[in-house]
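Final report, closing paragraph on structural work. Over the funding period we assembled a curated collection of sequence-structure pairs, and we close with a single example.
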Amino acid sequence: MVVNFLCALKPLAADGAVLYLEAPGERRVRLFIHVATASPPYVVSQQRAAEELKRRMGERPAVARMIDAAASRSGIETRSVVVPDADPSTATRFYSPDPTVPSPDTKQRMMMYKKWANTLSVAAVTDVLKVTGLEPSSINRLITVSCTGFSAPNFDHHLISTLGLSPGVQRTHIGFMGCAATLVGFTSVLESLRNGGGERRTTLLVSVELCSLHLQTEPTRDNILANMIFADGCGAALFSTAEGIPAQARIVETSSHIFPASTEFMGWEIGNHGFEMMLSSQLPEIIEQQAVPVAKQMIGRLGLSPERIRYWALHPGGRAIIDALQAGLQLTDEQTEPSRAVLRQYGNMSSASILFVLKELFSRSRMQADDWLCAIAFGPGLSMELVLMKGS
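Its predicted structure, as stored:
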């Protein structure tokens, strides 16, 4: 599915950004976005995480070497997580230090998810509302994104009751679509605003991912890789049909693609003791050989080539993923630095990551009239979402 639309983008501050969107073929509409993020309080270094994982997986030499290799190649220095186990000074543990004790079951993990999804989403949305000065009751549509937990009612209900959103706000949840889900959400936001019938509309998108709740200690390659790259975080973006605001960039096109015969490359299943990740070791090669040509085709629909695009927001799925995109698209180190900076400091926060990358990019640069920006993320399937923006 391809959706064409226009937007304008204006950085607010080092910790956020604003966008304005404008739909073609309709009356002039500006859709305002402020991007804010929230991280949990526990920060763990990659070195300490590796040592802890070795202990939990039995400290076999072959397994230890795999863990060390995954840590050293990850491109990650620190990650933020909701489990207190990351703090060596606390006696509180979510996962028992005794490897013979059964790990928390899925119900226990979902109870923890509910607590922290509520906390982090309120923090991110409070930041958005504070910066924009918008009243919570003016939000007409609430779109939530997550693939790391479920609860009914979920954090959308908590946001409504805690922050004073209208009880009549319309809600949509994008669940279990993996790391690409926030870019799917951008299209949903646009559709919600274009259906306003000329009335002022405001939409809030919130992505919460708590990957640390799904620690798996069976010493498999997939578990080692997942445990060494995934982390926790929340991003929120506020869209509104605001008038009289100067536009600085436009979203020109969004595109989606599902690769055939690719279900074994990335998967996410619900187990009895948390969710279980499947990641193919061939993923970077697949991205460079198959995803990059498709991305070039998507970009080419507008008569563009990667060389014409100055800014790139690449999902920080891991160093090898960014490396594959950089090599295939022939990007410079400067162009991939916003994604690498987020990866270094936060790790891979699944769908929330792209909001962290956009915030980082907007804090570094202000798009000029002829500047292009491309955002790319991948999800289970294997699927790819791509968004093109241009300065105005």
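DSSP finds ten helices and 16 strands in the chain. The longest strand covers residues 249-258. We thank the funder for supporting this effort.
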